[in-house]
Each structure stands twice: as structure tokens, then as C-alpha cells.
Write a structure and sequence with these properties.
Layout (H helix, E strand, L loop, with lengths): L12 E4 L6 E2 L2 H5 L15 H10 L3 H5 L2 E2 L3 H10 L3 E6 L6 H11 L3 H4 L4 E3 L3 H12 L3 E5 L2 H9 L3 E5 L13 E4 L2 H5 L1
Parallel strand pairs: 1-4, 1-6, 4-5, 6-7, 7-8
Antiparallel strand pairs: 2-3
Helix pairs in contact: 7-8
């Protein structure tokens, strides 16, 4: 049409959380006889069991034994093939970052070929999304499982694909949070 300018839009930039999205954090707990957590802070666990689980957050060996979520490797490859992968976005403690890099290198070695910084550790995921959006000037999306991160990211202007788990069903979410069964559905 004459007089109509064609506007090219940027592709979205997609960041993917590790635990609960591509890494099965809960599986080893279930194997040890713990119940499935009913909230993100393990409120259905005894105080002693919560202390034990919290100690795992700082145990590199625990992170190294995690298995990938079913379908995660294929879904991540699809995100990479779409040329929209921004990196893994995690808020893991610094004490387990070396183990995190080893785990990613073992289960997702292809990300090191496609991204200069495939693992981004940032304690404030919403703050990271704000920064990324201002630098990228485009659509930032995050595949996430944590209720507090999902809400914060959505309030920061990011679109969140919230991977469904019993522990994230008891929260009210702002606009911009879309519940998905798994990372594969987020790719679709």
C-alpha cells in the first residue's frame, strides 16, 4: 500500500530459568521420601526438613546430580534454532555457580556454541529483565517456575511463561504471566 510504512519488529529475547524449568530440583527430594512441595518455600515440610532442603541450595554436589526435565533439551534447542535464546537466568547462590556451569556444560553443551554468556546469575531477576529490556529495546520473555520471580518479572514488563507446578498454584499473578505445562509449551 502506498503511504504505509512496514515496521519491522525485533524478535523476542527468551531467558530460561534452571530449577523447575530445565533442571528437576524436586525429583531428588521425592526419591529421598520427601513429599512434593505444596508451596515455593516448602511450607508443608517440617522445620527440620526445610532446614535440610535449604542446605541443599548451597551444596554443589546436589546441583550436579540433578536430571534435566523431560523434553527440556529438545525445547531449548528449538529456542536456539529460533535465534531468540538470551541465556539461562538463575538466582542460585554464588557458592554453586561452578557446579551450575558444569551441569549446564554436561546437559546442554550446545548453549556454549550459541551464546557468549549462556548462564546469567542475578539475584533480582526482575531487575535483570528491566536492564535487558532497556539495553535490547525489545520484547523480553522468561520461562520461570518461581512465583515471586514470575510476578516481579511481569511487573518489570517481561512476559513470563510460568511452568506449572503445585508449588506455584497458590499465588495471584499480574498480567503478563502465562501458565504453561512445561518449557515445550512455551516454545509453541
Amino acid at each position: 500500500m502506498i503511504g504505509m510504512a512496514t515496521v519491522k519488529t525485533k524478535k523476542p529475547l527468551v531467558f530460561v530459568a534452571l530449577d523447575g524449568v530445565v533442571a528437576d530440583f524436586v525429583g531428588p527430594l521425592i526419591k529421598k521420601g520427601f513429599p512434593y512441595p505444596q508451596d515455593y518455600h516448602f511450607g508443608n515440610y517440617s522445620e527440620e526438613d526445610r532446614k535440610y532442603v535449604n542446605s541443599l541450595f548451597h551444596d554443589p554436589d546436589f546441583y550436579l546430580q540433578l536430571e534435566p526435565m523431560p523434553g527440556a533439551q529438545e525445547a531449548l534447542m528449538s529456542i536456539i534454532e529460533l535465534n531468540v535464546f538470551g541465556g539461562f537466568l538463575t538466582a542460585r547462590p554464588h557458592s554453586v555457580l561452578e557446579a551450575t556451569m558444569r551441569w549446564v556444560g554436561h546437559h546442554f553443551p550446545f548453549v556454549f556454541l550459541t551464546s557468549p554468556q549462556p548462564v546469567i546469575n542475578h539475584p533480582d531477576k526482575a531487575g535483570f529483565v528491566r536492564e535487558a529490556a532497556s539495553l535490547y529495546g525489545g520484547d523480553i520473555r522468561v520461562v520461570e517456575d518461581a512465583p515471586h520471580h514470575a510476578s516481579g518479572i511481569a511487573r518489570a514488563g517481561g512476559l513470563v511463561y510460568l511452568v506449572d507446578h503445585p508449588y506455584n498454584r497458590n499465588s495471584d499473578y499480574p498480567a503478563g504471566v502465562l501458565r504453561v505445562e512445561g518449557i515445550e509449551e512455551a516454545v509453541d
